[in-house]
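Hi,

I'm pasting everything inline rather than attaching a file, because the server keeps stripping attachments. The sequence lines come first, and each chain or strand is labelled.
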Amino acid sequence: MHKLLSSPVLRVEMIQGVCPSSLLRFCRRYGREGRQAAWRGRYLQLSPCRCYSIVPPAQDSAEKDMLDRMLRVDHAGEYGANRIYAGQMAVLGRTETGPIIQKMWDQEKAHLKVFNELMADNRVRPTILMPLWNLAGFALGAGSALLGKEGAMACTVAVEESISEHYNSQIRTLMEEDPDKYKELLQLIKKFRDEEMEHHDTGLEHDAELAPAYSLMKNIIQVGCKAAIYMSERI
Amino acid sequence: MAALLRALRIGQALRGLRAAQRSQCDEVKRTFQTAAVLRRVADDPKQEQVPPYSSSFHQNYQSMHPESESSRPNTSYADQHGEQAEDYETEEQLQIRMLTAALEFVPKHGWSVEAIAEGAQMLGLSPAAAGMFSNGAGDLIQHFVAQCNSNLSENLAEQHKLVQLGQTEPKKTDEFLRDAVEARLRMLIPYIEIWPQAMSILLLPHNIPESLKHLSTLVDDIWYYAGDRSTDLNWYTRRAALTGIYNTTELVMVQDSSPDFEETWKFLENRVSDVMNMANTAKQVQSTGEAVVQGIIGAAITLKNLTGINQRR
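And the predicted assembly:
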């Protein structure tokens, strides 16, 4: 089979009837095997190899839709969280809470980097609301930080709780679909969810609940997060 | 034979009147067209027998249509009817074969059901098999567009692989875009005389969603292989720019009469360099803006120092 496919031009007719994950070519860039093909409507879409196969190639367009949506909303979420911490640092960067926020911000930056790579590899369309999340995230972070350290921590608690809930529902969806197929993706999302929970607990430790109008602020932010998640999945 | 067809037509016309729904009227129109086509083509001396799988055309196409997006590659081991024949092909593949065969007859018959019927005949099927396509000419054109796009995608993937293996130098962005769009537009050259007809058919409301999807796939592919890995608003602006370039160049091409479409390629070069200039200008504006902002902050701090506001007491 591999001899057949060793010609540089892979014709659609040859590939029909072959499971996409068995299309192996040596990828020089990362020194490992991996080439993927996915169905784009009626025709096979060839893409160069991906650096690590965290996300399995989609078998049909319904699955591709689902994976696209998940990656898009996760990417938007991490980008928003990034901007929230940037806003908080802009106000509280030089105070004693600066290092704590900086540490959480660095972890979010690492998350964002992973999602950027996944988006690029899987050719997922980013949400068109990115500039909006840019502004809104920064404004939320700066605004909550202006209420003091407790305000910033309360905002962190609210956002991280929303994000953890969202990751949990994604984990549930993937587990329902096929835990084995999505093993690496599940591992990744679980790892990120655990780190977000850590941020949530850090926020609580640092007197988030002492913030002015804590429960009101928390509810408003969580409603906003839910709306953001809903919109980013679709638009 | 003619009487039977007339009776069929009357019966279907009555059904159309009773239902009075748009889809029904479309069905009736298509029935008329198909019946006319079938009569014309069947007047040929060749008498074909009805193939086993050209059953009721609408049910087949409609049931196929949602599947077409999710149909798996055909292995000889499983299909929905449970037949195990080695050379059994899905409806999907048969349609692809028919439409590909029909492309030969397009220069003669235009983008129409006649071309599909001729294509079906060439494959040894009855011209009635053309009735499988409830959208007729639209289906043919969409198939052609999808085929061209996937050819382009294969070529780009091959080039990309050569670059990754270090066998060729990577091209600069504007050169890459120019070459990709030129390669794609050259696929239209055999049909360039009748391409305006195809463009107008693609602009019909029921064809627009699918043609937009093909266009966005094309543009996404070209940018991906040009090296675009952006995940912010740039993703959208770049694709919008390339869509504009592609559409305008296509329009220029259909009315270009210069040898080997030189004017079109020159037009394309100018548009691509326009877009590149705009991108560079945007970058320059952004860096200037940042420098200005930093300058203002510096000036503000200096002022605060001078007036003594900055000192901590």
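The interface with chain A takes residues 68-76, 92-93, 96, 146-147, 149-150, 153-154, 157-158, 160-161, 164-166, 213, 217, 220-221, 224, 229-233, 235-236 of chain B (CB under 8 Å).

If the labels don't parse on your end, tell me and I'll reformat.
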